[in-house]
Amino acid sequence: MNLFKLFLSIVAITASSGIAQMNFTELSGELSGTLTADKRYLVVGEIYIPPGSSVSIEAGTVILFSEFTGLHVQGTLYARGTETLPIIFSSKNDSSIIDSTTVPPAPFDWNGIDIYESAVGSELFYCAVRYSVYGIRSQTDYCKINSSIFS
Question: Measured at the alpha carbon of residue 111, what is the angle toward residues 84 and 149, in degrees to the nearest 5?
């Protein structure tokens, strides 16, 4: 199943990038389908949910972002974590996830999540958004955000 149209690969990231010897699925470009909790994701370029598409993110999924990257939702995003298995959107330098990182996380490590006017029906439940410039910016009133933490 082709979940990511433009770019998908499994890589071992070295300590020089702040993440020591862990396997991540790299993300860049358009997304579709489901991001599963059994993988860890590293965003290496801007990611998009195009108009008319939807992406579901499973409870417990961890998505780490490289500097100057973010998530742009023009379609529909269903990020439905649970109280015990939140969905984490954070910096690749987040030491609570990567204990061997050599760079401390900072509040401006990645851009954040943009929800565009066309993203009607997007939902973010039990999500943690950490170390981003602006957290979530929504241009629509038709987006639900419940029980989420921004830090």
Answer: 25
Determine how many CB atoms are found less than 10 A away from the CB of residue 83.
9
CA distance 140 to 90: 23
Pairing assessment for the beta strands 22-30 and 127-129 based on DSSP bridges: unpaired
At 99, the pLDDT band (50, 70, 90 cuts) reads: confident
Listed range (50-64, 95-109, 125-139) with the worst mean pLDDT = 95-109
Cα three-residue angle 27-4-112, rounded to 5 degrees = 40
Q: In DSSP terms, which residues pair with 62 in a beta bridge? A: 40, 88
* Buried-state track 43-68, b at ≥16 Cβ within 10 A, e below 16: bbebbbbbeebbbbbbbbbbbbbbee
CA distances (Å), origin 145, targets 9, 30, 73, 125: 30, 23, 14, 6
3-state SS, residue 67: coil
